[in-house]
Structure formats: C-alpha cells, structure tokens
C-alpha cells in the first residue's frame, strides 16, 4: 500500500509539472501557495515532488518518503495531520484523528505533552530525563504543552496538564523558552499559553514560575481573547504596556475595559510603535486615528483625550478630525469638535466625506495621485465594520480601487472572507476581483476563509460556510488536501460534500 500510494503521489507531481508548463490556473495557484524556491523559472520534477509533500503536511519529499517507508503512507499522513492540527490549535481535527487511530500519538513525547498524557510523560522522563529539554521538531516539550489548545477539549485534564508542567520544569525545562520563527523572532511559552491557546491556568502557572510578562507578545495578544483574565494576569505580574501596541489592539474591539486597564498601567495613547509583534508589524497609527478607523465610539475618544492624546496630531498628512469624518465615524468626530479640534479638508477629503455621509458625487472622481496614503486602504479598513455596504459602494463609485492588496498582500475580497462576511464578499465578487491572488502569507481566497474560520476573534458570530460556498460557486479550485486539513468539523463536512457533488473542481 505504501509503495502504491507513493507512486500515485509521484504521478500527481508529474501531472502538476505538466499543468504548470501549460500555465493552467489551478497549477499556478498551487505552485504559488507552496513555492519550492524563490526563482520559479525552470522548475524541475523534484520541485513538484516538494510541493506535493508540503500539500500533505510534510516539509519535504524526502521526509514524506522516509515516514511512508517507516510506518506506511496512510499512517504517516495521519500523524503529520495530527502534528499540524495540535500545532495550529485545530482540536476538533485532532480529536477526530485520535478517534480514528487511538494510538497515533503513542511514544511521541511532544504530542503526549500536548495531549496531557501524564502517565506516558512520567514514564518517558523516567527512562530518558533529557527529553524534557530536547527540541522535538521546531518545539521543545514545554512549548508543545504551552501552545496546545487541548484544554478546551479536555478541561478535566487540567491537573494532568499542570503536573506535566511541573515534571518538565523539574527536569530542566525553561519557562522562558520560545519558538523561533524564520526571521529569528521569538514567540514565548507564555505567549503560547495566553495569546495562542487562551489557557489562563497554564499562563498563571508560567507566571508563578518565573515567566517574563514583558516578552513583547503576550500583552498585545491578551487583548484579542474576548475576556480580560489574560490582561489581569499579565498586568498583575508587572507587564508594561509601553512599546507593545496593546492599547491600539484593544481599540480594535472598542474594548473600554481593556483600554482602561492599560491606561491605568501607564499606557501612553501617543506611544505607537512599528516594531514586530507576533511576527507581524502592527499598523503604525496614532490613537485618535485608530479610534476613528476601527469604528470606536465617542466614549473611547474621550478616554484617549483624557489620557493625553493629542487632538491636533497629524499622521501622514491627515488630521484626526478629517480622518474621523472620512472614515464615517461621526461619534469620534463630534467628540473632537467638542474638544476644540478644527481643520480644513482637502478636495479629496471632501469627496470621501460626502461618500461617508451618504451623498453621491456623480461624474466626480478621486485623483489617486493626490490621495493621502492613509486613505488608500479605506475599503480594506471599513468593510469589516457593520452597516458599511452603501458607504463601500459610494467609495468605489468615486474611483477607489476595490481589488488592490494591502501591506500584507491581502485584498478586500480576502478580508471579507477571513472576516466571514458573505454579504460584503458577495458584492466584491460581483466586481470580478482576481480570484487567483496569493497574499503575503501564501493564502488563497479559499485558505484565507478557512484561516478566518479558526482564528478570527469574532468567528462565532460570522458565516464562513457561506463565504466558502460563494468562493466555490465563483469557481475557485478546491485542493483535495485542504479538505482533510480543515480544522472545523462542520466545514470539513461541507467541503467533503462539495467535492462529492462537484468532483471536477477538486485538484
């Protein structure tokens, strides 16, 4: 079975190679999603084997082949999916894989830590104590534990989880260990527990045992959780908001409680940084501009002004009051005017404000060359705000581009998909955007929707299934490997049903 399956994958690579030479759109998309090297000219068969391996969750063809020969391709592929699922927090998929193959993680120390298998961890450490500090894949055992979201599937294993943490630490594990990204950026165990896994119990344990709350990650991401326990833990342990952009991230959710907590901890509303947080550079923008852009209310603007935000501070040539009016944030604009802010509008700002206030401008268009840089991505910014469909249509009518990529290479239709907003996405699809676009993270429209379904903070209230349906009805390809790798069981079922009904769309 293993050899036959490997031969089938070799044939898949051969077919992909031929389709790439012919520049079939589906083949171009697959190559761009998993580029075997920077220079995509003169690709050879080994490059396409590499792509096939990556699509199946392996780092390379030799790694796939070795695992297939060791355990059989089917089990090797299942094991790789389990590793990826646990690393990405796809606990529904991990549970399904373990139900189908209960012994899949047996004897794999990192996975046993992530699954809170206390007895197995104790036995392994008794036989080989140095396992506690060995790197198993890209992570040490304490990182496998910290980044695991298994606690949300098995809350009754909390005691075993903490016992494993104690065991690892007593055998030399470092609570300040971190996961190193390709750029050398470090994501700490504390960030893994609080920011990634939303595991407050383990986060508190790490802090109690010496984890550094000022890791340049945890405080920022603690604002994304939909509760304030992470912020309380970190601030109580001495986390400093300065230089973290945590205040600005809290404003993304119009979260008065979080902003108040951060201001009480001496966050400066005029202290915004462009450095990397969570392997990404947050958008550098002053607080009042941020409040206007994110749809914050007047109370938020008052809190920021009371904390010292400068109502006259310009950003890239834009005044806070003009910015609020352009973005259609009447509440923030009213507060600024009440506090005495004034400014003259440019010709372009007048047009943009008319669009925000519900007025059409027939026959008049914005000159893109005269548009201030902060306004160029206004469609990207406001499409996620409620009740903005008419505003968006008026912006397109006066000439704002609807299919350009932002600094991360993401287009508006991809943002709508990630946000799970089918009405906005359907309208953008009617404008015929480029459905083959690959963003800066290597994501297609389909994979971006799936990523949002698992990672968007508002995903519980959004409709990613309808977004998937819209994308598929528009003709995007459905890669077979994406179906089995989908983290949410309901969406995995939806994609499986679609593949059965429309097999010609599956690649």
Automatic annotation (TrEMBL):
SMART domains: ANK. Keywords: ANK repeat, Repeat. Gene3D superfamilies: Ankyrin repeat-containing domain. InterPro entries: Ankyrin_rpt (IPR002110), Ankyrin_rpt-contain_sf (IPR036770). Transmembrane segments: none annotated. PANTHER family: ANKYRIN REPEAT AND PROTEIN KINASE DOMAIN-CONTAINING PROTEIN, INVERSIN-A. This is Ankrin repeat protein. It comes from Sagittula stellata (strain ATCC 700073 / DSM 11524 / E-37).
């Amino acid at each position: 079975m293993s050899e036959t399956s490997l031969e089938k994958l070799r044939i898949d690579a051969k077919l992909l190679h031929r389709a790439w030479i012919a520049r079939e759109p589906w083949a171009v998309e697959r190559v761009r999603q998993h580029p075997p090297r920077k220079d995509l000219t003169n690709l050879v068969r080994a490059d396409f084997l590499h792509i096939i391996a990556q699509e199946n969750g392996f780092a390379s063809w030799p790694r796939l082949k070795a695992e297939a020969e060791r355990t059989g391709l089917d089990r090797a592929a299942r094991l790789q999916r389990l590793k990826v699922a646990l690393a990405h927090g796809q606990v529904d998929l991990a549970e399904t894989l373990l139900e189908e193959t209960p012994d899949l993680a047996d004897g794999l120390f990192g996975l046993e830590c992530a699954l809170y298998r206390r007895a197995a961890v104790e036995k392994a450490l008794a036989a080989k104590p140095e396992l506690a500090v060995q790197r198993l894949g890209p992570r040490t055992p304490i990182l496998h534990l910290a980044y695991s979201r298994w606690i949300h599937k098995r809350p009754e294993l909390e005691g075993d989880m903490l016992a494993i943490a104690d065991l690892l630490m007593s055998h030399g594990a470092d609570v300040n260990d971190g996961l190193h990204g390709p750029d050398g950026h470090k994501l700490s165990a504390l960030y893994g527990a609080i920011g990634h896994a939303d595991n407050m119990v383990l986060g508190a344990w790490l802090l109690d045992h010496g984890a550094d709350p000022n890791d340049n990650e945890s405080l920022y991401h603690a604002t994304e959780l939909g509760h304030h326990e992470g912020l309380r833990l970190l601030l109580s342990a001495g986390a400093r908001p300065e230089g973290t952009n945590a205040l600005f991230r809290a404003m993304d959710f119009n979260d008065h409680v979080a902003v108040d907590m951060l201001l009480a901890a001496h966050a400066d509303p005029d202290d915004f940084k462009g450095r990397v947080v969570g392997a990404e550079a947050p958008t550098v923008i002053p607080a009042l501009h941020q409040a206007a852009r994110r749809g914050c209310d007047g109370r938020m603007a008052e809190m920021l002004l009371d904390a010292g935000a400068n109502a006259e501070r310009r950003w890239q040539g834009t005044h806070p009051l003009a910015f609020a009016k352009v973005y259609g944030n009447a509440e923030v604009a009213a507060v600024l005017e009440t506090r005495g802010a004034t400014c003259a509008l440019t010709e372009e700002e007048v047009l943009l404000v008319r669009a925000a206030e519900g007025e059409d401008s027939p026959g008049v268009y914005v000159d893109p060359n005269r548009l201030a840089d902060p306004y160029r991505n206004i469609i990207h910014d406001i499409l996620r705000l409620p009740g903005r469909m008419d505003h968006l249509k008026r912006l397109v009518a006066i000439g704002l581009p609807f299919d350009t990529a932002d600094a991360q290479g993401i287009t508006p239709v991809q943002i709508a998909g990630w946000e799970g907003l089918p009405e906005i996405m359907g309208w953008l699809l009617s404008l015929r955007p480029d459905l083959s676009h690959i963003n800066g993270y290597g994501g297609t429209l389909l994979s971006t929707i799936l990523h949002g379904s698992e990672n968007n903070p508002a995903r519980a209230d959004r409709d990613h299934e309808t977004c998937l349906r819209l994308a598929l009805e528009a003709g995007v390809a459905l890669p077979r490997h994406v179906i089995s790798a989908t983290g949410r069981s309901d969406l995995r079922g939806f994609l499986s049903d679609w593949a059965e009904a429309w097999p010609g769309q599956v690649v």
